[in-house]
């Protein structure tokens, strides 16, 4: 394992709330912020419970507090309840909120049903907006500023069906929230990864294999070779590094941005 970063003094005693952190990018962000010194609250859906328990254990091994709360981000009431539970268990110290949970389906537009599109919008967009607002309300109440981060994508810049439409909207909402909440000392940004080695991309790969009639693994391999200028697939930890920077003092003059971290895949 790589050497652990030392905790940042300013992070100690503060909480980061992260949705969809049982695996992939969310898990890497949760672990990185814990190593930086934050206590962590992970909000995820019931089927992810066992994986979340492992993340909680890993974070506790860094000497930080970690809790698991249940929330399907498609249900606003569950998001508000998850924030309330976080505050009641870890104290009124919410400093970071990461709306990471998201879903993608790969389908030609002519095969997209209303139900299919509604699910992506409820999860990727309404879920993010409700998470941001619920977290900001708590941060405003605490009156000590905060950092709000959302999951964008290179699809926030180059449209990829209904998924891309939700991620374009994430970019717009990030700007709007940053503008309104700067007065409270809250900075709002989003990360825009490319092809990250997570279960989500394994799913995309399987879907593309079916659509393009190629073998499983081929779609990912071809796109990594063709599109990623830095020559390797992105690891979830690469995204976590950007988040750690954006929430830190180093990022103090950055707000309203959807920052690409994609190894040049968008070039
Ligand atoms: N993997 C990539 O290449 C990539 C690229 C760009 C952007 N992103 C974005 O990053 C985010 C994380 O992606 P990932 O690849 O780690 O995904 P993933 O599918 O590997 O993990 C998603 C997590 O979200 C949770 N989740 C699913 N539905 C949920 C719901 N309704 N409520 C709460 N939690 C829910 C899952 O249990 C899981 O923990 C997503 O928003 C995704 O769109 C991913």
Automatic annotation (TrEMBL):
It comes from the Eukaryota. GO terms for biological process: fatty acid biosynthetic process. This is NAD(P)-binding protein. Belongs to the short-chain dehydrogenases/reductases (SDR) family. GO terms for molecular function: oxidoreductase activity, acting on the CH-OH group of donors, NAD or NADP as acceptor; quinone binding. The lineage of its organism: Eukaryota, Fungi, Dikarya, Basidiomycota, Agaricomycotina. It comes from Phlebiopsis gigantea (strain 11061_1 CR5-6). SUPFAM superfamilies: NAD(P)-binding Rossmann-fold domains (SSF51735). Pfam families: adh_short.
